[in-house]
Amino acid sequence: MTDEPAQPAPKTHEKSDRLVTRARAQGAVTAAVIYPCSAAALQGAHEARAAGLIEPLLVGPRLEIERIATAHRIDVSSMPIVDVAGPVNAAYTAAALVHENRVRVLIKGSLHTDELMKAVASRKAGLLTARRVSHVFVMDVPRHERLLFIADAAVNIAPRLRVKRDITQSAIDLAHACGIAQPHVAALSAIETVNEGMPSSIDAAALKDMAARGEITGAVVDGPLALDNAISEEAAHIKGLATPVAGKVDVLIVPGIEAGNILYKALVYLSGAIAGGIVMGLKAPIILTSRADSAASRVMSAALANLLVHYARSPEHAPPHVEGLPP
Q: Does 108 fall in a domain?
């Protein structure tokens, strides 16, 4: 009796693979890698370029970039370098490149996140819009059939209701850019009823009302919902909840950064999820890379930025600009 040939292991991240394929088909977009003075930053740019998602332009000290690239055998010969000294100067230079239409995406290099955000979100940089700056994680969770968009787990610590409105709309816009025509949104709390002792439940109900009044558009929004009722139609049925979101949720709006950060990291480290992430609300999306990011995560983030740029090129999809700032 002959042994049967070993079957290939099933792929567990088909959803992110499809996302990358969708972005690649639309063509690479130009991206400024801000102060890429580490092997991880240069390798990330190389991987995203090799995937056909971005055409990187490196913004930082040329000699240092070339020294690191040589030391780690990373080929940057085809990547233009804008020679700028210092991380903050690099951030402002990258913002100017957006205004000059030389780049469409910004990517964090080896500078600190607070340095980057303080610069690019300043009025001096001219990248602000009327939309509050926020972050969205897109999670490819094995054995879960849908991508999960989580907002905001990285930028806004304890957002007020009006900020949550912007966070929700930006997450919906990103879902649209990823090809989800009418995303289902769950405004999360620990309970499914409004309780004045739990402010997140009040905000969640208000977000649902905003969607009903047209202040949030392009999605089905419900809340407050606990996580189990958003994810599982069976859990909602057992609790007697009639909601169009249960079992079909695409976007999870978390109460604050702590809940979002815990949820995102639990999915990555306990469920083997791939997480792509992007900052929205400025005139160019920002990829906040981390040394702990996997190659798959960096490529997925580049795919999200690519898709968002192509989506936002239509005038009706561009976020409103702040009066008095450069267009």
A: yes
For residues 32 and 152, membership in a common domain is answered with no
Asked whether residue 42 falls in the same domain as residue 114, the answer is yes
For residue 183, say if its preceding peptide bond is cis, omega within 30 degrees of 0. no
Does one domain contain both 135 and 274? yes
Residue-wise pLDDT for 211-266, tens only, equals: 999 999 999 999 999 999 999 999 988 888 889 999 999 999 999 999 999 999 99
Specify if 6 maps to a domain.
no
The pLDDT, as a whole number, for residue 133 is 96
Give me the CATH number covering residue 95.
3.40.50.10950
- CA separation for the pair 106, 89 (Å, rounded): 14
Residues 191, 106: Cα–Cα separation, whole Å: 38
pLDDT score of 171 more than 50: yes
Contact present, 142 and 158 (Cβ < 8 Å):
no
pLDDT at 291: 72
Those residues with Cβ within 8 angstroms of residue 33's Cβ, 6 or more apart along the chain or in another chain: 41, 42, 44, 45, 56, 57, 58, 59, 60, 107, 109
Neighbours of 72 (CB within 10 A): 12
CA 146 to chain centre: 16
Are 107 and 143 in the same domain?
no
- Extract the tokens encoding 83: 């020679």
Q: Which two tokens mark 111?
A: 């500078």
